[in-house]
Write a sequence for this structure.
């Protein structure tokens, strides 16, 4: 039975991709900063790659290289791909930006796609997701679920991407409970299960009863689970690490984007550009809302629907900066330009932003 | 029953000379077994690992980029280890050289011209040497263990760099990301043959440094002093050589070279300071130093071998999909077999059935020269 289904699926893939059969297989290559089984960021990209293989079947060939350090090694790994006949190379870490720019200059016939950066060229596109939209929903859930009125946030590096997530989380929480507080620990790593778990312990000992993370391992989820409090998953669905613990998770779903872009390479319509998609476009999705009462789940689903429809934007005034000065006036939305360089907290964050 | 190491009265000069090759051969055999256990064809895997990266010109350039810092650092370390000074902190000295050397393009980006690069290199040398002087002072003044202090200072350097690029030296136009501004063209180490690949002046520094240090160790009185104090500090003192001076000389020379490697890497391959500027060159160079038998000319060859394990790991990963961790396994096995071969050249293994008193005395006697020679 399974074989028949597989056969059908492949036949379907073959027919839908018929126009592309005219030309050679397209080779799509992926450069990963972490391990493809990290349970978080890189795994999400690799799931996207697998989706490409599944949906485009015989018309595409994929390759990847994992655990590539940012810096000169990245440039070599990317160049190796460009030379080995890749038609399009996806580089999936912010730190690969300048390396990707350098290789793209040398290989004008190869297409490059860089995740979470801001530099583009004729053959180099940038793509990113509005992760902060999911954080707003998480903030609301946290404010409903927390008895202590304070959540703990395990952060990686004080770059705009992360600061944006922290601010969005607290704004979401304050929309439910204006007095909600947030404690932040900087782990200074993207992936280090031990360090992340230690950070979670410290936060719990300081009295937080909800944990959220902007790091990629399941360490914090496991600690939260041992201590019997609730937590949010990051980048991938982490429900397996905390079946009774995970409230929801922001899942990066790059697959649709990858399929779309590779199809464009196949039919020759690929163009450079810079996209910053969100829940609306489906580049991120929320894991099922679990381990919470029905009314909280209902609120979360309503908020998600509002963000999807564009009715609600997390960064809408009135919003005050941490020092009490005004940032956004009543009804004013933060521009993408300001967001992508964000380097200050909003009110309610119990931490000093490392400068 | 237990095993004992007993010092050989005479060492085979033949085996002493070819021991790195034996170690390399054993690593290949063990590597083939590892690949076979992973379910890969071992010959194909070894081909991708050790031959594929050598087939193309651009890849040879990459090999030179990778080998240059390893050779420069290892050449300095060889003087340290020959003189019995255990500098494990080259990684930190590399970082400090990179930091001090970057001061000009980061803090004074408007100061440009042909003078910039030589000044940067000089400051890199100074930065590394000054940082290496710290464990030297601690060792000579307070008799602290330089293995510990030099290693700990690595972490200090790493965090100092981390703080600089996130704070005071952060690129003001860089969207708050932890990196400095990119160096202006005058501050970038020139590429040798830009048409073919990225290799820069770093590899030239490596070869020149190796030759100079080889001349120093084998042809000068200072080199003789290094070797005598390393082999027997007592004999050195009788000859009137100062141990304290030697500690400073060895540490600061190796620190200066590590610093040179640091600024060459930053201004050549990277082009700016970032939170991490080394994938562990300072530690890998320890393997290179021993694989090269602490001989600067041998170190040149050893540097290329180790650089190959980095590139091969990537090539094997892309073409046959083995994990990149295999590269680390190869490096570890290489050091293990080198040290193992060396040990067995100096000592033989004896099986002892029951510990008798006379045996214990013999062991103690055998252990004495061992601790000095190790």
């Amino acid at each position: 039975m399974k074989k028949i289904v597989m056969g059908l699926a492949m036949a379907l893939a073959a027919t839908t991709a018929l126009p592309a059969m005219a030309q050679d297989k397209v080779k799509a290559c992926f450069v990963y900063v972490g391990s493809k089984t990290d349970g978080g960021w890189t795994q999400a990209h690799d799931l996207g790659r697998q989706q490409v293989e599944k949906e485009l079947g015989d018309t595409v060939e994929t390759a990847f290289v994992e655990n590539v350090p940012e810096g000169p090694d990245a440039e070599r790994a990317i160049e190796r791909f460009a030379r080995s006949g890749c038609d399009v190379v996806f580089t999936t870490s912010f730190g690969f930006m300048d390396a990707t720019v350098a290789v793209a200059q040398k290989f004008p016939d190869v297409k490059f796609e860089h995740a979470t950066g801001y530099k583009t060229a004729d053959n180099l596109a940038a793509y990113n997701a509005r992760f902060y939209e999911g954080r707003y929903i998480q903030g609301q859930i946290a404010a409903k679920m927390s008895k202590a009125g304070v959540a703990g946030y395990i952060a990686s590096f004080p770059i705009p991407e992360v600061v944006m997530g922290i601010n969005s989380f607290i704004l979401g929480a304050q929309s439910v409970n204006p007095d909600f507080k947030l404690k932040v620990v900087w782990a200074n790593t993207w992936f280090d299960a031990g360090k992340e778990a230690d950070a979670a312990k410290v936060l719990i000992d300081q009295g937080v009863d909800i944990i959220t993370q902007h790091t990629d391992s399941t360490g914090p989820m496991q600690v939260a689970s041992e201590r019997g409090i609730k937590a949010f998953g990051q980048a991938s669905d982490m429900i397996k690490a905390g079946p009774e613990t995970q409230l929801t998770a922001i899942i990066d779903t790059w697959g649709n984007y990858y399929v779309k872009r590779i199809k464009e390479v196949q039919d020759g319509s690929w163009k450079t550009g810079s996209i910053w998609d969100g829940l609306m476009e489906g580049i991120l999705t929320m894991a099922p809302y679990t381990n919470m009462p029905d009314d909280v789940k209902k609120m979360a689903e309503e908020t998600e629907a509002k963000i999807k429809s564009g009715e609600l934007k997390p960064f809408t005034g009135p919003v005050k900066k941490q020092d009490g000065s005004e940032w956004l006036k009543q009804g004013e939305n933060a521009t993408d330009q300001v967001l992508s360089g964000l380097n200050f907290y909003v009110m309610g964050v119990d931490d000093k932003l490392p400068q | 029953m237990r095993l004992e190491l007993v010092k050989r009265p005479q060492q085979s000069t033949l085996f002493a000379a070819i021991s790195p090759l034996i170690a390399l051969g054993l690593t290949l055999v063990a590597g083939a077994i590892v690949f076979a256990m992973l379910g890969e064809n071992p010959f194909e895997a070894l081909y991708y690992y050790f031959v594929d990266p050598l087939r193309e010109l651009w890849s040879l350039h990459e090999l030179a980029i990778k080998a240059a810092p390893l050779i420069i650092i290892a050449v300095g370390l060889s003087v340290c280890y020959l003189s019995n000074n255990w500098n494990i902190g080259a990684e930190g000295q590399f970082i400090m050289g990179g930091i001090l050397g970057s001061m000009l393009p980061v803090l004074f980006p408007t100061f440009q011209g042909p003078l910039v690069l030589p000044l940067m290199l000089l400051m890199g040398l100074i930065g590394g040497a000054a940082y290496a002087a710290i464990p030297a002072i601690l060792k000579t003044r307070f008799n602290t263990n330089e293995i510990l202090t030099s290693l700990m200072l690595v972490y200090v350097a790493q965090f100092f760099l981390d703080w600089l690029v996130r704070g005071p030296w952060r690129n003001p136009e860089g969207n708050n990301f932890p990196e400095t501004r990119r160096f202006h063209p005058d501050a970038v180490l020139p590429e040798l043959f830009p048409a073919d690949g990225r290799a820069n002046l770093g590899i030239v520094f490596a070869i020149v440094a190796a030759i100079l240090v080889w001349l120093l160790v084998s042809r000068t009185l200072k080199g003789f002093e290094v070797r005598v104090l390393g082999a027997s500090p007592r004999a050195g003192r009788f000859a009137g050589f100062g141990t304290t001076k030697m500690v400073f000389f060895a540490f600061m020379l190796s620190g200066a070279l590590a610093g040179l490697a640091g600024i060459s890497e930053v201004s050549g391959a990277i082009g700016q300071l970032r939170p991490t500027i080394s994938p562990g060159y300072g530690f890998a160079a320890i393997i290179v130093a021993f694989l090269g038998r602490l001989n600067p000319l041998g170190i040149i060859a050893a540097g290329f071998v180790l650089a190959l394990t980095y590139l091969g790991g990537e090539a094997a990963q892309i073409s046959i999909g083995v994990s990149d961790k295999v590269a680390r396994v190869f490096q570890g096995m290489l050091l293990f077999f080198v040290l193992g071969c060396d040990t067995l050249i100096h000592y033989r293994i004896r099986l002892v059935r029951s510990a008798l008193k006379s045996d214990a005395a013999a062991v103690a006697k055998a252990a004495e020269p061992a601790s000095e020679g190790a």
User: Anything to note?
Assistant: The two ends of chain B are 25 Å apart (CA to CA). Chain B touches chain A at residues 56, 58-59, 62, 65, 162, 166-167, 175-178, 182, 198, 265, 269-272, 274, 276-277, 279, 310-311, 314-315, 317-318, 323-325 (CB under 8 Å). Chain B has a mean pLDDT of 88. The longest strand of chain B covers residues 2-7.
